[in-house]
Amino acid sequence: DTAISIDPNGIDSNYFYADYLISQKQYKDAEKYLLKAQQAQPRPGRDIADKGRQTDIQLALNLVHKMKK
């Protein structure tokens, strides 16, 4: 939650908060933060890291959608 207040639109802050919410079985809220992470602006010089994080986000979204059913 603190990371979100520091970097509310960041890919990592939103992804890791969503990951925490998934661990708490709060799938609807997690989906919101994953979608926000997915829309984050690319970071200069972090192309490979951002691409990897986008893969992580998609996998987490797949899990969230499965668990919401």
Indicate the radius of gyration in whole angstroms. 12 Å
Distance between the termini: 26 Å
Name the overall outline: globular
Would you tell me the overall average pLDDT?
A: 95
Features:
about 70 residues
What's the quick description here?
With 69 residues, this protein is mainly alpha-helical. Helices cover 75% and strands 0% of the residues.
Draw up the topology in text.
Elements: H1 2-6, H2 11-23, H3 27-38, H4 47-68
Helix pairs in contact: 2-3, 2-4, 3-4
Please characterize this protein's 3D structure.
It is a single chain. The protein is mainly alpha-helical and 69 residues long. 75% of the residues lie in helices and 0% in strands. It has four helices and no strands. The N and C termini lie far apart (26 Å). Helix 2 (11-23) packs antiparallel against helix 3 and helix 2 (11-23) runs parallel beside helix 4 (47-68).
